[in-house]
Amino acid sequence: MEDSPLSVRKLGKTFPRRLGLSSFRAVDSVDIQMSSGEILGFLGPNGAGKTTTIKCVLGLLRPSSGSISLWGEPPGSRGARRRIGFVPENPDYEDIFTPLELLSMFASMRGLDQDDRKERVLLSRVGLSGWERTRLRSFSKGMRQRVSLALALQSGPDLLVLDEPTGGLDPAARKEFRDIILEENRRGASVFLSSHLLSEVETVCHRAVILAKGRKVSEGTMEELLRTEDTYSVRYAAAEEGPEDVTEVRVPGDLLQSTIDEIRGRGLPIVSVAPVYRSLEEVFLTATGEEGPE
Amino acid sequence: MRPVLTFAQMTVRSLLRRRTVWGISIVILLALTGIGQVPGYGVTTQGRFILDFGLFGLEIGALLLAIGLASNIYPRDRETRTITPLLAVPLSRGQYLMGRFTGAAMIQAVSMIVGCLGLMVVLIVKQHAVPADLFPATGLLVVEGWFLLAVVFFFSFWTSPPLNAPLTALLFIVSQLSVSGFVGLFPRAPGLMRTLRLLLPHMDVFHIKDPIAHGMEIPGVYFLLAIVYGLSYMAFMLALALAVFRRRDMK
Question: Which helix (H) or strand (E) element contains residue A53?
Fold first, then answer.
């Protein structure tokens, strides 16, 4: 278990309401197990409990029940913090500082050597070249998001925790972000990616966990999630001579063999047999029972 | 220690760039200048007047600085969500508190020393002697200011800034009362009031403007004991603040 960057067992978080007279269960009995080097997508509609879970993982909220361990250490421990890079949702650092100042101060607080050249390279990597000495107060939301990513990458983290990291970005910047996430994963970092952008999760994640109303409603590799339950597509040529006129039928797994036999019995050539895949959006909507992701 | 010092440096820069401290310092210096303009009945009484009111101004300045510097630090960090990435990665809650406190305490100390120098200039310009105990007396006010800062931090973890200021000011006033004065606030329960007074800080030990203004000599050991008392109380308040802060959820 100690090799697992993140292990969440039966996590529950309840917030008191109305002076403690009632309470609200934001997260209920959630289990998450991450493998080293994995990119895990964390999906759910607004209010599903994603950010609450992330805050518990980072030691910002105390779980009401269950346990969390990061490489065998409790959340918020010095050892765990050293190995994490975090990009919060809507980051808002003190806007009187410049990105270079923030990087330099974070480096010092993390016990890293301050290296102006390295920090400039990092800022250039996240697309902030030329903005090193401009105060954050004149930055757009997307630019602040880039500063946040630079701060998260600064220590070469073993685990990147990203909470809606591309929320304020345009499509080109989103692609840059995705590329950086993939680069970091190739370097060996595990990535915990919470996102509303299903296409983003589908593109970069190895596995996904779907949350709804504080509970885990689905989990699996992208292959497992996108594959429909035991449904296959059988494509065959309508004429014996060739595949010019191809017909497709979708059959459940238990009827697959008999369907193939029947088509062959009619002397028609089978072009392909493949499991049927859904889009992640379909998976998400089915799992959460929502009308659509917000 | 390095993270705390770096964070303290970040706090100093942040406070200086936000200009809060400049406003309060200018008010203190203007007040000191004003004191110098008040006509005295004689050379000796004018010197006493300047010293008495000057040190009183510094006492109030210590309170205003503590409230002005620290009451909004933590609420602003929460409001702007600056606190999330800080506590999530590089800093523990103890380091956050100590960094913010050290930064504010540095500014508080420098402002008080500048105030003391201002008072000294007023005395010299008005051709009065500068008493040797002026600097140690300012030192006591610096320690009092640090204690007040710790109180403000403590309140800021569980109250709003508008409530923090009156609570701190109330503690500042109450902790100057004598035992009999304090019991007089609620004479029906003298035992309880006496115990409460014992537990509350005795900030009157930091205020030695009267003996200084009247040229009385204060033994060095008094300063030493008062400083130890102030620093101990400050450490206690910080420990209390940290205990509250550690239990806070960062929603």
Answer: helix A50-57
User: A112 near A157, Cβ under 8 Å?
Assistant: no
CATH of A7-224 given 3.40.710.10, 3.10.20.30, 2.60.200.40, 3.40.50.300: 3.40.50.300
Contact B17 A151 (CB under 8 A): no
Residue range A96-105, pLDDT digits in tens: 889 999 999 8
Beta carbon pairs, A and B, within 8 Å: 84
List CB contacts (< 8 A) between A84 and chain B.
88-89
Q: For residues A34 and A221, is the Cβ–Cβ distance under 8 A?
A: no
The residue ranges of every structural domain in chain A are 7-224, 226-288
Containing A247, the helix (H) or strand (E) segment is strand A246-252
pTM: 0.83
Is B251 an 8 Å CB contact of chain A? yes
What angle separates helix B43-70 from helix B134-156, to the nearest 10 degrees? 30
Nearest CA in chain A to B14: A96
- Give the domain ranges of chain B: 2-247
Which whole-number Å values give the CA distances from A167 to A173, A174, A209, A213, in the listed order?
A: 11, 9, 19, 21
- Nearest by CB to residue A96, choosing from B3, B18, B88, is B18
* CA–CA distance, A233 with A27 (Å, rounded to integer): 38
Complex confidence, ipTM: 0.77
